[in-house]
Amino acid sequence: MKNLSATTHPLFVSADGSCTAYSEQYGEHYHSLKDGALNETLHKHVIPGFTLKKEKKELHILDICFGLGLNTLTTLWYYKTHAPDTKLFLYSPELDEELLATLTSFNYPEIFQPFLPILHVVLQEGCYEDKQCRIELFRGDAREYVRTFSDRFDIVYQDAFSPAKNPTLWTVEYFADIHKAMKKDAVLTTYSIALPVRLALYRNDFYLYLWHDEKVRSFTVASKKPLLEHTPLDMEHKIRCNPNILPLSDTQIA
Ligand SMILES: C[S@@+](CC[C@H](N)C(=O)[O-])C[C@H]1O[C@@H](n2cnc3c(N)ncnc32)[C@H](O)[C@@H]1O
């Protein structure tokens, strides 16, 4: 089996047989070993996003952050097999240069083989473009990158490491920038169901939903406008029941 840098990003096989890695810097795996890396990507981000935005002929997706590129590859595979007429624009920031340098030899699932040449162009040039899709990799801080957009994204995959390990990508102030970067009917998908995260989204006027898919543990979908046929979480009730829990804020981060 091919490996990443064995010392800083050791490889792990997850429950669905797909590979992920562990970050020594953050002390976390890039994907849930329990749900499976491919399952998590597909069922917590790509399928909910594409299903909720199925009427769109053009999709602008922000992936926070690029990591192993699994969200990017899964999105490419899904759109080619389920929504080939959609025009796809993918945007993703990533800070970890050392990780990016190792990805050409990562052990990706077999279904992604046709898309690896695209990944290699993205890694080398920072951007891939053809008639149907454009993929941009920004090498730098996601906070800075997100602030450069306004009213752009239809879908945001909020897939940072956990709030405990990667707090700057879960604060009220961060989600304010994300809110501004999203179109008025856009949705955000995240594996996190933590109350401080939901409060940070709620403070920015998102409607919040607990989402279920039998392949993975339940997760959160946030939407700028109410989703018909779905009941939003009663956040005022949660706040009354948990008066001491606060959303994460930039001011709490050293
Ligand atoms: C859980 S992983 C993302 C997994 C990825 N979506 C995938 O499909 O493989 C989180 C990533 O966020 C990156 N990261 C954390 N903070 C960042 C920041 N402020 N700006 C850019 N990237 C950041 C980490 O280096 C890591 O690669």
What report would you give on this structure?
The chain is an alpha/beta fold and 254 residues long. It has a single domain (36-244), classed as Rossmann fold, CATH 3.40.50. It has eight helices and eleven strands. The strands form two sheets. Strands 6-7-5-4-8-9-11-10 form an eight-stranded mixed β-sheet. Strands 1-2-3 form a three-stranded antiparallel β-sheet, with no helix packed on it. Helix 6 (172-181) crosses helix 7. The longest helix has 16 residues, at 37-52. The radius of gyration is 17 Å and the shape is globular. The protein starts with 10 loop residues before the first strand and ends in a 13-residue tail after the last helix. The model has no long low-confidence stretch (mean pLDDT 95). The site of S-adenosylmethionine (SAM) has 23 residues, from helix 2, strand 5 and helix 5.
What do we call the CATH homologous superfamily?
Answer: Vaccinia Virus protein VP39
CATH architecture: 3-Layer(aba) Sandwich
Tally the helices: what do you get?
Answer: 8
Low-confidence stretches: none
Structural class: alpha/beta
Strand-and-helix sequence, N→C?
Answer: EEEHEHEHHEEHEHEHEEH
The average pLDDT value, as a whole number, equals 95
Main traits of this protein?
254 residues; alpha/beta; Rossmann fold; binds S-adenosylmethionine
Q: What's a quick, concise take on this entry?
A:
The protein has helices spanning about 35-50, 70-80, 95-100, 115-125, 140-145, 170-180, 195-200, 235-240, and strands at about 10-15, 20-25, 30, 60-65, 85-95, 125-130, 135-140, 155-160, 180-190, 205-215, 215-225.
